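The following block was generated as part of the benchmark described in Methods. Ligand: G3I.
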Amino acid sequence: MKLTARSVSLVPIVSTVAAAALGASLIMAGNANAATTLGAAAQQSGRYFGTAVAAGRMGDSTYMGILNREFDMVTAENEMKMDATEPSQGRFTYGNADRIVNHARSRGMRVRGHALAWHSQQPGWMQNMSGSALRNAMLNHVTQVATYYRGKIYAWDVVNEAFADGSSGARRDSNLQRTGNDWIEAAFRAARAADPGAKLCYNDYNTDDWSHAKTQAVYRMVQDFKARGVPIDCVGLQSHFNAQSPVPSNYQTTLQNFANLGVDVQITELDIEGSGSAQASNYDRVTRACLAVSRCTGITVWGIRDSDSWRAYGTPLLFDNNGNKKPAYTSVLNALNAGGPGPTTTTTTTTTTTTSNGPGPGDCTASVSLNQWNEGFVATIKVTAGSSALKGWRVTTTLSNGTVTNSWSANRSGTSGTVNWTNVDYNANVPAGQSTEFGFQGTGSGSGLNPTCSAS
Ligand code: G3I
């Protein structure tokens, strides 16, 4: 294995199990640097190669054998959707999702969460809601699910498929859209507050061709979010291709243009109908396009064998019904082994804790969990009451080399240097020994925040 600087820098966020699996699968082939599995081949350039997994197939030994051998990222095909995780309002069920997440993590695979808010596959109770009741239910769903999986998800599809097809460039009409145009950014803010360590993605289909109105509309939304500090980290291109919707000639341009907005790009649900060399050639093009864009951080195929696909009739995947590798598999593996520049935004997570003023009666402590990447950071500040309950609190942080661009769950004064934070209404009261959290996002460095807390 050729260990590039980038692959070395990823070591802290790859578990020991993953490292062992990677080492085991990097058996030297004809090419001295060639990896023999999709995940290992992708890791050579700091990327991942994932698949959708269905809980109902986890008893199938052929399926599981391929999953465990080939992939290092997993998406639950249906099990994390709103109807699966909140079948009746306020009752959350994670059984099937947990089976997938726990299996993935036990094998050192990472997990993409799919999807927190979507017009489709809503539970029945939600389909009938509207207005502020629906908005609140949606935000509660995002908060509850992202909190439950906090720390376990590499990237969340926070909002899925919110734009209309065709030439309008408009938002898709849906009950969620009718709660107000800001429903998407509200969902992203709630997701960031619930799991500050997860990358937050907007995910859609028919956004592969740069010239299409839908692609342009999503681009403008992401551009606007970045300009206004709405927390978004990535754009997912589902990339379901067939004769009616072929791989566009400008696909790489689309990936690059989204990346230029300062977000990662992920190919999230790849499948390409067809067979033989024509299908293999299309898979090769898609893989090479990702490798050519440094912020295209990984590819996920939407299933393992053709027979596992939501459109099995189109034989769109990398393994045939018997689990044999297809020509498309070989073309992807070869393209990955040919490599490409690694992602530029390697995330490193550090956690520091600072205690101030106690704890004692009427006092509080503050600690920070910092997620720092090349150009920015997200800080989550935990405020803990001492031996008496807090009726209000004030936190001071120091930002020597960074600027706050966005914050949540606290009032702020200042954006750099000494920044003061005070509680908002709903988190003023903190029982003795209990905690509440607020957070902020910034550009530059978030190190040395050194939060201090006092009761107010
Ligand atoms: O599990 C039940 C089964 O018990 C029942 O007998 C059967 C009867 O129809 O339905 C089964 O559930 C189906 C489920 O897939 C599991 O196979 C649902 O009806 C069916 O609606 C569901 O389809 C999923 C589809 O999303 C729903 O929108 C597909 O598996 C899944 O691959 C597909 O994935 C979507 C992404 O989430 C978003 N992007 C597009 C992509 C493809 O449509």
